[in-house]
Design goal:
Elements (H helix, E strand, L loop, with lengths): L4 E6 L10 E11 L38 E7 L2 E9 L2 E5 L4 E4 L4 E5 L4 E6 L9 E11 L10 E5 L6 E5 L5 E8 L1 E2 L2 E2 L17 E7 L4 E4 L8 E8 L2 E4 L2 E4 L2 E6 L4 E5 L5 E8 L7 E3 L2 E3 L2 H14 L20 E3 L5 E3 L1
Antiparallel strand pairs: 1-20, 2-9, 3-8, 4-7, 4-9, 5-6, 5-8, 6-25, 7-10, 11-12, 12-15, 13-14, 15-22, 16-21, 17-20, 17-22, 18-19, 18-21, 23-24, 25-26
């Protein structure tokens, strides 16, 4: 019998990934009702390490935000960010004049390429109830040939992201959000054009699963023997994967070349993220927000950033957020605007 599980380990922060992925973080914060500025009320910031608040206190973190939680403007070069929103609001702004607001079910895919400044803030729109936020941020590497492409971002809106409903023989259903790649006869929306995921032979697959209690689902095998697949079981009770029982808050590296049977043996809904792809197999040199192939290229990235600020910051605030009344939208650097 072929056993498909290679490794099981507890989830840390960030979650461990494999080439072509660089990083994965899951954020779930139970933000309170906001004040008149969509910020955390002052009394709830007492005792926090403002600017570097990564410890959950009262159910939430401020991250690098001082008044509004989130990540004020910071640079990136040489890779892509995929931000998957499950609950709450994210406001985006960047050095090219791009901006956006996206909510539950939406995905933002950003190619940093040769360099961009952007901010990701979590405004608390509701002043009369909690503002829970749940997002994943996945970093997908770019191959050397695409490291210095022009930066841009793309929105995958929830109304268009394929959702697959698979009901097993016992009547229990698994719901799959297909963010990137192909799964059986289903195809995701197109990724950014310079992405490693834009080439089908690289078998990049990014999906989230919601499995009803007792549901069974079988992942089809990948076609390429080099392809790697990781499952992240981040909420639920217990899964039976192949012949192994796995409790929540574990990552599972599996053999992608065989079909993978998953059964939710718990008595509650189970939630998973799956990342799959063929490795880029190039050297990785990383320093903070820059990911290149050599240390010399990292030094060049710092020099370029110091000299150009990757276009500078065109917005009024470092912690830029949009008007409370603003709905979901995306404003691109070419002036094109999408409104939802």
């Amino acid at each position: 019998m072929i056993h498909s599980i290679i490794n099981i380990q507890p989830l840390g922060f960030p979650w461990k990934t494999q080439d072509p992925f660089l990083f994965c973080a899951h954020h779930r914060d139970l933000y309170p009702a906001g004040d008149e500025n969509m910020a955390v009320p002052a009394h709830l910031k007492i005792g926090r390490n403002i600017g570097q608040d990564f410890t959950i206190k009262d159910g939430f973190r401020m991250y690098h935000g001082s008044d509004i939680p989130g990540f004020p403007y910071h640079p990136h070069r040489g890779f892509e960010t995929i931000t998957i929103n499950k609950e709450g609001i994210v406001d985006h702004s960047d050095s090219l004049g791009g901006a956006g607001r996206f909510g539950a079910g939406d995905v933002q895919w950003m190619t940093a390429g040769k360099g961009i400044l952007h901010s990701e803030m979590f405004p608390m729109l509701h002043d009369d109830k909690e503002n829970t936020l749940e997002i994943f941020q996945v970093w997908l590497n770019l191959p050397k040939a695409s490291k210095m492409v022009p930066p841009h971002f793309k929105m995958l809106w929830k109304e268009e992201v394929p959702v697959i409903e698979q009901t097993d023989k016992n009547g229990f259903t698994t719901y799959i959000d297909l963010i990137a790649g192909r799964l059986n006869e289903h195809q995701s929306l197109e990724p950014t054009p310079n992405s490693w995921a834009a080439h089908p032979e690289n078998e990049v697959l990014v999906v989230t699963l919601k499995m009803e209690a007792h549901a069974t689902y079988t992942f089809p095998k990948a076609l390429n023997n080099e392809t790697r697949r990781n499952l992240y079981f981040y909420r639920g009770n217990e899964l039976l994967i192949d012949t192994s029982k796995v409790s929540e808050n574990h990552s599972i590296e599996v053999d992608a070349t065989v079909d993978l049977k998953i059964k939710n043996t718990g008595n509650t809904t189970a939630y998973l993220l799956v990342l799959q792809g063929k490795p880029i197999n190039e050297p990785v040199a990383q320093h903070g927000p820059f990911v290149m192939n050599t240390q010399q290229e990292i030094r060049e990235a710092f020099t370029d950033y110091q000299q150009t600020q990757f276009g500078g910051w065109p917005w009024k605030e470092q912690e830029q957020v949009h008007h409370r009344e603003k709905g979901r939208f995306a404003l691109h650097s070419d002036g094109r605007e999408e409104v939802r």
